[in-house]
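Dear colleague,

Following up on yesterday's call, I've attached the two folding results inline so they're easy to grep. Please treat them as preliminary; we haven't cross-checked anything against experimental data yet. The first protein's sequence and structure tokens come first.
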Amino acid sequence: MMGWWAEWQARLRKVWAIYGVRPFQIRQVARSIEHISGPLDVTIGPDELAVFCLLRDGELYVHSFMRHYLALGAKHIFLLDNGSTDRTLELARQYSQVTILRSRLPFRTHKMALRHYLIRRFAAPNRWALYVDVDELFDYPYSDVVPLPDFLGYLRRYGYTAVVAYMLDMFSDGPLAQLDSDIEDDLPGKYRFYDLSDVVKMDYYFPRNELPTPEIKAYFGGIRRTLFAPEELRFVLTKHPLFLQDGRLQPLFVDEHFARGAQVADVTAVLYHYKFLADFAERTRRAIREENYHTRSEDYKKYWAKLQQAPDLSLVRPSARELGHVNELAAQNFLYVSPRYSRWAIRRP
């Protein structure tokens, strides 16, 4: 009985947070917004992409983030800064295809409202949007031969409104304590290793979405599970970052991993995740101090405990591989690619 009661209370709190608290907080965010730079009205075409990101103190990521998404073919990037004290804003303003806003409301209490404000304000109806963190670089199978507008056109042609993407932790081949990071670093070039050996695949559990095949799964774990919590099923790797604002889909429904009302595509994507930079220990300490992530930054407490035990920690294991191209992730069954998408991508004129 207590288990049932606790579960019911948790569901009630979640419903209240989504439908009661969140709308009020979004209005608070709207009143707090400062326009730093860039256009506020940007026209996005049917097969063009707008990228959205909430960030703070991301100077080590900004150049790689901007260069990656502009090279990918994004039409415009919308950044909402949450009170950076480093060079994040200075660096981001160097790019013309970016709009920068700022809100100093606390991340711990307003993180979802901040994200939702950004999307509701700038994601146009019936247009594609990509919500990512500043340490995440999105890529999709056959991106070397399929330009982004064609990829988005394929999704629209077959009625898909969201793409599942899996976070893949990228790391260097040296100990964390010996890393040296610089704002000019090319993150994809510097952090080239990954490890799929501890990725746990489970049945897709996100409700009210339509899957094209049961072969698309929900992923957990990865190298962070191997190193920081080998006995636990944690570190959710599944997200729905790319979505079409069709009026039915609800992006970032519970948190940044969820979407609701989605027609999920028959091809999955990757979010290269660059958490393990030289500032990993400092970011971990701050997350623990502020307790502003899931369950009061519990994951970060596990990171810190391991760093205390093994200050010379290296992420490279015998199962680690050096990344060559996104398509190898499909060949290793980390990404799902339908036969139809493969035929279409290969036979394109």
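Below is the second protein, in the same order (sequence, then structure):
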Amino acid sequence: MKTLLSILLGLGILGGAGALVGLMVKFKPEAQKVERERVLPGVEVMTAKMTDVPLQIPSQGLVSAVRETSLASEVAGRVAKVSPRFKVGERFAEGEVLIELEDSDYRSAITQAESALAEAQAALIQEQARAEQAVRDWNKIAPGQPPTDLATRKPQLLSAEARVRATEDSLARARRDLERTRIRTPFAGRLRATHTELGSYLTPGGRVADFDSTGRYEIRLPVSLDDLAFLEAQTGADALLKASVAGQDLVWKGTVARTEGEVERASRSVYLVVEIEEDSRPENAFLKPGLFLRAEVAGRVAKGVFQIPRRAFLDETWLIVVGPGDKLEIRSVKTLRGGRDSVLVSEGLKEGERVCLTSLPAPMNGMEVRVLESGQGPDAQAAKF
């Protein structure tokens, strides 16, 4: 009996559950169909504008003196006197005496040369008198006949004249040697090194000092052959020179004086030589040989180019243009010159075209995008090329 009741109870529960499921299926709510909106990638663009951009050629180098020379003694002698400013770093005007050698022997040589000259001049006067007398004697012996050179003592007269000239040259040389005992500066400049001292003995060719010119300096700037093509002229261009000293940014202006006429094989570079005039400004206290300078040489003006941010490029020559219908066009362009943040495009773009500035993961030709806003191109004045 109990078993029958359990079976009937189970069947009742199953029937009720089935009826409940049927009602739920019959009266279930209808799901609303929603169309999904297509999401387009958003991009930032800039409008290409043609402009003229002045080019600048960057380089760097060390300051050096225009003239560097090693002073040497032309005569022998002991150093008898030294200028109190004969020290490294001291400045001298042109012609100032640095050291003096003992000159007593050279003064004696002048005295001897003067004596020899006086004797030669006296001998010449005597020989001239003998020659005149010989002519008179000849005219008495052989009147009307031309005298011979021997009869008129012409060889003796020429010898006496040559002796006078030789002793005059000896006297001039002795005086030059005396002057050479005073070693002077060849031009205005600064002592870079000294190689002798009071009491030292110098022989001809003995080193005295190393001397650099002042008032004007030069700096050799290596420039690649590609950059050299951007110069308007290889001489006369302006150069801006900078150095950081003790937290200060110092600036000088220079001019390209010449171009060295050889290409360096290792770097394929040519050296421009820029000259800097020294003036009375305080920063010139730091303008000395060996100072490292950064340089910007003014080049020609690039006309009719487009200045495009570097981030717009897929690689060196490919970028994306957003065309009609906001569809992408991957385009190859010709670049003239690249800066740190932007690139100059000379061919491949047109005025007013929109250049994509947003980096897309997988851009394709014809891909539709959503333009978010127009970005600003780089400042032509601030950017440097």
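For the second protein, one point worth flagging: The chain has four helices and 21 strands.

Best wishes,
A.L.
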